[in-house]
Amino acid sequence: MSTRRAALGQALAAVPLVVWFALPLAPIVLWAVAAQWAWPAVLPQRWGLTGWREAGAAGLPSAMARSTLLGLAVACLATPLGAMAGRALGWRLTRHSGAASLVLLAPIAIPPFAVATGLDTLVLRARLPGSLAVVLVLSVFALPYTTYILRAAHTATDPDLELQARMLGAAPRYVLRSITIPVLRPALVTAAAMAFLVGWSDYVVTLVLGGGRLVTAPMLLASSASGTGNEPLVAAISVASILPLLAVVAGGVLVRRGRRAGRREVPA
Amino acid sequence: MTVPGGQRRGLVLLAPAVALTTMVTTAAVGSVLLTSVGLLPLFGPATASLQGFQAAAPDLRVASRESLLIATASTAVALVVGLTTALLLLRLAPRRRWVGAPLAAVLPVPHLVGAAAMGLLLSGGGMLSRVFGVEQSAWPELVGGPWPVAVVAEFAWKESAFVAVVVLASTSAALPDLSDAARMLGAGARQRLLRVTLPLAAPAAAAASLIVFLYTLGSYEVAWLLGRAYPEPLPVMAYRLYTSIDLAARPQAAATAVTAIGLSVIAAAATLPLIRRLGAAR
User: Fold this and answer.
1) Burial per residue of B181-216, b for 16 or more beta-carbon CB atoms within 10 angstroms, e otherwise
2) pLDDT digits (tens, 9 = 90+) for B84-99
3) CA distance linking residue A46 with residue A32, whole number of Å
4) Is the dihedral of CA B182, B183, B185, B190 positive or negative?
5) Would you call A36 helix, strand, or coil by DSSP?
6) How many CA atoms does the CB half-sphere of A137 hold within 13 Å?
7) Model confidence at A71: pLDDT above 90
8) Residues A140-159: pLDDT tens digits?
9) CA–CA min distance A140, chain B (Å)
10) Which residue of B has its CA nearest to A91?
11) Inter-chain contact A26–B121, Cβ cutoff 8 Å?
């Protein structure tokens, strides 16, 4: 009886939690499928895909493609650099780990708008393409996360693993490809996902350094959200900006669960 | 490592990340500093002067206060809600862990999307005003009002998920065993919470709070979308001056950026020793 009461207490305590995290997403989900939703109705009076048609006309598909490319570029740069730095720091391959950590974590304490406005004129004078500058700056902001994740992963991995493979005659490249990378795969995936998100979510660095030509999904969202009376459009771009991410997160969870279940079926 | 040449190999591995970070941050911070004291003008001769700071001084004070208010309030709410969430999820039976799903959904949401969502939730005529049936004229000015309620709500909402995930990641492995041991030794629920769970969660919670504070202090888009024109926080003020048609406002914009960097560095330097001590005590 008392365990049942405890379970009930847990369930009741979870209600405000679910409301806190889920409620702010409710209006964009509803507006994204509303054709007409006048005050004071609590639910839309007519359902429809008005917002999606407007978003298509505003160039949402190509903006999402640009955002995807930007996220991938940041992940492709910040993940290997973070893995190399994480290897040196996690396996204590240098005496200078304190100074190196300080440098690599420093971007957390420097506001992105300050970096972007500071670099803007320098980038123009150096005739550097704006999108390259955006990728470089966002990679610097992703590096603290990728380095931290991969340092922890290296700390949890025995460096002798590589040594043993080498002693058994494996070439360095083979060891990296068949031993180290598979062992670190979960951390590499997490780090790459974090770096992708930095690129996918950015607004202010793209705004300042992209020079208005790099129109990503956040740029479209900002220009529509700062106006009034276009709730369906704002909601459609918002939902389009998070659905792919949720699909990836859910997919990752299912794959991991499947793998764990598969492992359990194999007799020890 | 005892491998010969290990020291040099370590430096080679660190070099690309350290070089890129150093290059971008020194170039950016150096350029902002020089611009703020008139040594990097867009055109004309460079003359050192504190005019940028002086011209912006009254607004800088108000904007700094607004930024610190937003960052402090957001961090406090995010810490309390995030920590409570983590502790609650840690106590839940495994088959009830699905209540953590909304938390996982909030984590990857871009702040700009969060800001748009908060606008549609909290503004007059927004979803909450419909649910409570309050006329637009009677609805409190949560968006763009005298207090940055919607701005803080967005940061607290997003960042509480971040705090919860960081705390969960750092405590979920060790907590069950330690908590069971404490129970065997006769510790009650309250004692276990105060003597085992909270000390175990403290280093991660403190580190996550510092990251949240620094992020909210330097974030532009949420306050730009949900705040009102005056008082504005430092990032919004800096970008407004930066894009002003009056090019003489550039040193003022840079002075605003220097102020934001200064506040962030002071906050980090002041709290890092505390976080280290918490980690060492663990």
Assistant:
1) ebeeeebeeeebeeebbeebbbbbbbbbbbbbbbbb
2) 999 888 887 676 677 7
3) 12
4) positive
5) strand
6) 33
7) yes
8) 999 999 999 999 999 999 98
9) 5
10) B1
11) yes
**pLDDT, tens only, B168-210:** 988 887 888 888 898 888 888 888 888 888 988 999 999 999 9
**How far is B98 from B102, CA to CA, in rounded Å?**
8
d(CA A46, CA A105): 50
Q: Could you tell me if A199 and A74 are in contact, meaning their C-beta atoms sit under 8 angstroms apart?
A: yes
For residue A35 the two structure tokens come to 């054709």
Q: What is the ipTM of this complex?
A: 0.92
Contact residues, chain A, for B42 at CB < 8 Å: 121
Tell me whether residue A26 is exposed, middle or buried, using C-beta atoms within 10 angstroms of its C-beta: 0 to 12, 13 to 18, 19 or more: middle
Which member of A31, A110, A222 has the closest CB to residue B112?
A: A222
Q: Where are the beta strands (DSSP E) in chain A?
A: 34-36, 46-47
Q: Does A147 touch chain B (CB under 8 A)?
A: yes
∠ Cα A173 A175 A178 (to 5°): 105
Residues in CB range of A147: below 8 A, 6 or more apart: A81, A82, A85, A86, A89, A104, A105, B17
Verdict on whether the full-model pTM lies above 0.90 = yes
Cβ distance of A103 and B85 shorter than 8 Å: no
A197 touches chain B (CB under 8 A): yes
- Which of A27, A110, A117 faces B126 most closely, judged by CB atoms? A27
SS3 content of chain B, % helix, strand, coil (to 5): 75, 0, 25
CA distance B99 to B203: 25
The answer, for B188 touching chain A at a CB cutoff of 8 Å, is: no
Chain B CB contacts of A68 below 8 Å: none
| A24 neighbors B160 (Cβ within 8 angstroms) | no
Q: Do A28 and B18 touch (CB under 8 A)?
A: no
- Is the distance from CB of A143 to CB of A80 less than 8 angstroms? no
Nearest CA in chain A to B150: A24
Residues of chain B positioned with their CB less than 8 A from the CB of A108: 211, 214-215, 268
Asked if B259 and B241 count as a contact pair (C-beta separation under 8 A), the reply is: no
Is residue B103 within 8 angstroms of chain A, CB to CB?
A: yes
Q: Would you tell me which residues 173-192 of chain A have a C-beta closer than 8 angstroms to some C-beta of chain B?
A: none
Q: Which residue does chain A place closest to B83, by CA atoms?
A: A17
